[in-house]
Write a sequence for this structure.
């Protein structure tokens, strides 16, 4: 038995599955029992345990299940493979439905959702009421859930109604106290009532309804020798009127709410707080503030990906593992007084690909990490054989300063093994100094887009008015920057002088030898900006919100997928150069026009 996945399975039999107007499935009638299932359980053992609970013939019925992240699709449970899917893709519990083929119905068009959900749920008088002389039982509205209590009102059952049976009854077990607390919270959502703990410890839990004299109460005790809790007392009846429940303001817990939205985050990582507010209101009838929804989102991420603080503990193992499975990979980290400082990762396949098939030019840039510990993500990005993005190395540091940039670029220089490259970057002071010291000023090209933004700030101070005046200034600067010959540069510069001497002076003072094509001493392959590096930052936009451990693993998965796609695409090239390069060549040929030869 594999104890890593051991969950509780609710088995329903004797009723039928009905698909409602909203596409969701409901099991109507019958009865339910609970069994434990685990990863690796055989299909024969599973059916045997079910037959121990129900006196039915499996030859006349079929089993179905519904995964929580896709509740509108019903799936057959016919063999060990299906059983493995049920266990692997479920979280706290799973529901299995046993139906005869004739009991699987389509949408009931003419039956309101409220009646579909409640027609098989009669009102039941609690035995506790019979002994309570202070309460007149014949005037009380009692039920096992809020939908029944409101069956004759205008209230429409919510998505959270499915939580009403998060705890089935006495004997239901939970792997620990935390799972029990989650189930209690889910029941409160489904039943729309408030609760309070009389005892709240890992060994003994006692919970009751917050409304006075209500008999609803659940207790659980730890099974001797472990953390497992077993439900002991289970009184699931409320004796107050529906209006008390409708007006009840439910507690909002980010920790418990994270369990509710956890499955959504697994399939939709960009699930926004505003959407959480809308979904909680629509599905559960609970109003959230933006701040509450944000905390629920953070708790859900922590529940799925682990605590951000703990993820740093895995870095030594992860770096070792990356080097082990892919020899030649550079994966290093530094720490100060036991606290994380810097991380550098360059995969062996990226290093090999750059050395063998990329232009000798790197765009470097940084972006902020938005997790709880912030920091900066540094990157060195190359161009592949068809001018596509080719990530070479990434780094995670505390901030974008000279020391961190020097450390990162020193690692980049080491992996280049003496290969000369041109570095393109903005003019951040930490970058200017570290590139100069490690690669030489002659190999440092400035990003023209950033420089043009600085130029715009300059001519805004020159009282150049009108849209045409600004467009003329930009066009003149483009002529200076993209001139390929010295004579063309001089002509363009003189035109700028005639337009505005102060702007021409600005060009001279801002080191044109680092950004003007004709002045730059090295080959820069017509690469004028760091746009490719900023595209990389956008490419990892969602991962930058995750823990450092998740960031590294997701980056590697996405990188391998992207490079694989590029390899497959290159097999379809019609010539020795890629489609983008071929398109540029044709455009240059067309722009050059006919050339006449004198005889």
């Amino acid at each position: 038995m594999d104890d890593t996945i051991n969950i509780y399975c609710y088995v329903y039999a004797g009723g039928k599955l009905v698909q409602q107007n909203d596409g969701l499935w409901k099991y109507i009638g019958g009865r339910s029992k609970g069994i434990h299932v685990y990863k690796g359980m055989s299909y024969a053992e599973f059916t045997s345990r079910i037959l121990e609970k129900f006196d039915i013939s499996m030859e006349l019925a079929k089993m179905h299940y519904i995964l929580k992240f896709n509740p509108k699709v019903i799936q057959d449970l016919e063999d060990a493979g299906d059983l493995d899917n049920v266990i692997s893709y479920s979280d706290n519990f799973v529901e299995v439905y046993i139906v005869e083929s004739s009991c699987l119905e389509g949408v009931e068009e003419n039956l309101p959702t409220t009646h579909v959900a409640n027609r098989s749920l009669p009102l039941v008088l609690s035995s506790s009421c019979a002994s309570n002389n202070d309460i007149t039982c014949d005037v009380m509205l009692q039920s096992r859930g809020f939908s029944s209590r409101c069956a004759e009102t205008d209230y429409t059952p919510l998505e959270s109604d499915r939580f009403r049976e998060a705890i089935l009854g006495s004997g239901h077990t939970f792997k620990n106290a935390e799972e029990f607390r989650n189930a209690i919270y889910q029941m409160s959502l489904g039943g729309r009532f408030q609760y309070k703990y009389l005892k709240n410890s890992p060994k003994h839990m006692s919970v009751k309804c917050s409304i006075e004299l209500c008999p609803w109460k659940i207790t659980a005790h730890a099974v001797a020798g472990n953390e497992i809790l077993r439900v002991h007392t289970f009184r699931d009846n409320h004796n107050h009127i529906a209006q008390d429940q409708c007006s009840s303001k439910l507690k909002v817990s980010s920790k418990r709410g994270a369990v509710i939205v956890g499955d959504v985050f697994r399939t939709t990582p960009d699930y926004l707080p505003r959407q959480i507010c809308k979904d909680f209101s629509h599905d559960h009838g609970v109003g959230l503030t933006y701040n509450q929804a944000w905390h629920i989102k953070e708790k859900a991420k922590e529940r799925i990906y682990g605590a951000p603080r703990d993820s740093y503990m895995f870095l030594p193992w992860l770096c070792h593992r990356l080097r082990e499975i892919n020899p030649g990979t550079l994966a290093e980290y530094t720490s100060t007084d036991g606290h994380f400082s810097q991380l550098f990762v360059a995969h062996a396949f990226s290093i090999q690909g750059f050395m063998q098939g990329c232009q000798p030019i790197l765009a470097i840039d940084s972006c902020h990490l938005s997790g709880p510990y912030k920091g900066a993500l540094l990157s060195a990005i190359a161009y592949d054989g068809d001018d596509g993005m080719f990530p070479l190395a990434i780094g995670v540091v505390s901030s974008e300063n000279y020391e961190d940039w020097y450390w990162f670029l020193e690692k980049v220089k080491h992996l280049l093994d003496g290969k000369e490259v041109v570095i393109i970057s903005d003019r951040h002071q930490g970058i200017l100094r570290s590139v100069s010291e490690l690669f030489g000023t002659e190999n440092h090209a400035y990003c023209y887009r950033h420089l043009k933004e600085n130029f715009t700030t300059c001519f805004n101070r020159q009282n150049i008015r009108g849209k045409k005046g600004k467009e003329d200034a930009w066009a003149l600067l483009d002529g200076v920057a993209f001139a390929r010959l010295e004579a063309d540069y001089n002509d363009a510069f003189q035109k700028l002088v005639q337009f505005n001497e102060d702007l021409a002076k600005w060009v001279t003072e801002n080191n044109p030898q680092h950004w003007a094509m004709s002045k730059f001493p090295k080959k820069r392959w017509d690469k004028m900006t760091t746009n490719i590096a900023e595209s990389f930052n956008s490419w990892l936009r969602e991962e930058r919100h995750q823990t450092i451990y998740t960031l590294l693993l997701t980056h590697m998965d996405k990188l391998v997928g992207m490079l694989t796609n590029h390899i497959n695409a290159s097999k379809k090239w019609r010539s020795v150069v890629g489609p983008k390069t071929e398109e540029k060549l044709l455009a240059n040929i067309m722009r050059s026009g006919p050339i006449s030869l004198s005889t």
Observations:
- Residues 104-158 have pLDDT under 50 and may be disordered.
